[in-house]
Hints:
This protein is of the alpha/beta class. Helices cover 35% and strands 14% of the residues.
Amino acid sequence: MLFTGLDLQLAPGSVTWLRGTNGSGKTSLLRILAGLSHPAEGEVLWAGQPLRKAGDQARQGTVYISHANALKDDLTLLESVAFGAALSGLADVTARAGAALDAMGLKSRADAPVRTLSQGQRRRGALARLRLDDAPRTWILDEPFDALDTASVDALARLIEGHAKRGGAVLLTSHQPVTLAGTQAFDLEPFRAR
């Protein structure tokens, strides 16, 4: 068991920085909240319902981007982002993916195979999926600032703040200081099972 007595609530319009040392269970908790893993004990609630019963409502209301970029090496960057958009049920995926890549400064790399991109370009490509989202969903982001240059960090910060302003909730991890407007910190250490 990783945690005990953990009670974390994500309100609309909130940005929460989940803090903890390496190996403290941050990624495991994010995977549980995204519905990709199950807690050994306790319950994850979505809009007052157990996550396992909320089903499609919870899946459609959550965007999860892990520390791995989830881009297919053999596809172009545009194809990979469009594929993710199609899985999310979005319409007009190619045009939307192209606009998202353009907003992330990747227009010139849209037709490049993912395997040819730098780590920073891959990270921005993965984060372009956030630009596809115009609904106030819950974003669960594992180390979103990794491999980004200063301009990209600033652009991502504005994107997260804008999402919170339209009523979306954001939960993120970062080993870098998070200075986003209205961010609240949640320290995992007091809840770690001993």
